[in-house]
Amino acid sequence: FTTQANIEKHLRNYANPAFSQHICMNEYGKNYALVSAIYSKDEYGQRITFTYCKKLHTYDRIKHSSKPIDYPVTADYFLDQEWLLVRAKPRSNLYVYEPEGFVLEAAETRPQKKKSVKLCAWREKLSVLRHQQALEGQKQREC
Questions:
Q1: What is the dihedral of CA 102, 106, 109, 114, to 10 degrees?
Q2: Could you give the C-alpha distances from 21 to 30, 45, 47, 68, 105, in angstroms and in order?
Q3: 3-state secondary structure the chain
Q4: What is the pTM of this model?
Q5: Are 58 and 91 in contact (CB under 8 A)?
Q6: For 113-139, how does the pLDDT look when each residue is reduced to its tens digit (9 = 90+)?
Q7: Measured between alpha carbons, how far is 90 from 107 in angstroms, rounded to an integer?
Q8: pLDDT tens string 62-112
Q9: Among 131, 45, 31, 11, which residue's Cα sits nearest to residue 73?
Q10: In this structure, are residues 58 and 95 in contact, taking their beta carbons and an 8 Å threshold?
C-alpha cells in the first residue's frame, strides 16, 4: 500500500460494481453493504472513506406507523495515524429491517457491533501488510 494506485486497486476488490456511489440510488437489504471506498489525501494525511448502508425500520410513536429507511454509516480510516472515525446519524426508534413487514411487538432494535468488528479486521490486515512491506524494504537495503 505504498501508492495511491495500489490502494485503489485493492479497494476495487471489495466494491460492488452494481452499486452507485450515491446512497439513494441503490437497493439495500437487512445487512450492511459497502457502497463505496474512496482513497484521498489532505492536510490530515492519507485516508480511506468507507460508506456502508442497509435498510432499517423506523417507528413513529405518535402516528403508530413504520417505514423502511436506508441507514448509511461512514468510516474514515486514517492510514498515517492508523485510527478509525465512524459516523452515523443518531436516531431513535430504529429497528432491524424485516422484508415481510414491521410488527412492533416482534421488532429487534438495531445491533451495531458486527460492522465495527469488520472494520477493525480490515485495519489489522492493513497494518500487517504495512509491516511486511517495511521488512521487505529493510531486506533490500541490507543487500
A1: -100
A2: 19, 23, 17, 20, 35
A3: CCCHHHHHHHHHCCCCCCCCCCHHHCCCCCCCEEEEEEEEEECCEEEEEEEEEEEEEEEECCCCEEEEEEEEEEEEEECCCCEEEEEECCCCCEEECCCCCCCHHHCCECCCHHHHHHHHHHHHHHHHHHHHHHHHHHHHHHC
A4: 0.69
A5: yes
A6: 445 545 555 555 555 555 555 555 555
A7: 19
A8: 888 889 999 999 999 998 888 899 998 888 888 889 888 888 877 777 555
A9: 31
A10: yes
Amino acid making up residue 58:
T
Amino acid identity, residue 52? Answer: Y
Instruction: Say if residues 39 and 4 touch (Cβ distance below 8 Å).
Output: yes
In sign, the C-alpha dihedral spanning 54, 14, 47, 112 is positive
Question: Any idea which residue has 452494481 for its cell?
Answer: 18
Cell numbers placing 28: 439495500
The single-letter code of the amino acid at 10 is H
